[in-house]
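Subject: complex prediction, re-run

Hi both,

The earlier run crashed halfway through, so I resubmitted it with identical inputs.
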Amino acid sequence: MDFILFGPPAAGKGTQARRLVETRGMIQLSTGDMLRGAIASGSELGRRVASILEAGELVPDEIVISLIEEALGEAHGAGAIFDGFPRTLAQARSLDEMLARRGRRIDLVIRLVVDRDKLLSRIERRFAESGRSDDNPAAFATRLEAYLRSTTPLIDYYRAAGKLAELDGMRSIEEVAQAIDAAIAARCGAASPSAPDSLTAPSAKR
Ligand code: ADP
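This time it finished cleanly. Structure:
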């Protein structure tokens, strides 16, 4: 099973993706983490993208597409969670092609719906706590704008494909996690994790 976690910056995609890694043994493919890793390593790619991330703009499609292509590899085990990718229609189409070449496909797109005020208050707190530089107010405004302009068209793309599940992302981390488990169970039939925090989800074993 391959999923996309979809939503605006600071919607909680990374937190929920990490939980799916722990409970289901999936792999998390986060282009944001990959790009920050490239910057931290001082690679040529890192030097190319550093100022783009700093400003909160989108990195060119071909760069993130090739990062994902590399990371996909051949083996996938329990499947992948795409987090922060795709962010444009071109990325979404490439992802469909990359997966099709491997006999895979996106099974479910989980959209976390969070309103703007909530995002702003979360990001203020995160900026104060972690100091991630693109959480500063100006860069965050640019990230939100990029999301609204380039990424929201994907909602219709995946809705038309019948793959979209929309969840209220304003609730607690645990409540959102349970809603995600329920959406996965509804779509994929089986497979709620056996972790004790999933008592309200259907109890089928993977
Ligand atoms: P968030 O979801 O909180 O905005 P990410 O870690 O996903 O954070 O992304 C951080 C930054 O990395 C983005 O603002 C953008 O500059 C760059 N980036 C990440 N993924 C992509 C992508 N798929 N396409 C273009 N740029 C990306």
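The CA atoms of residues 64 and 70 lie 10 Å apart.

- K.
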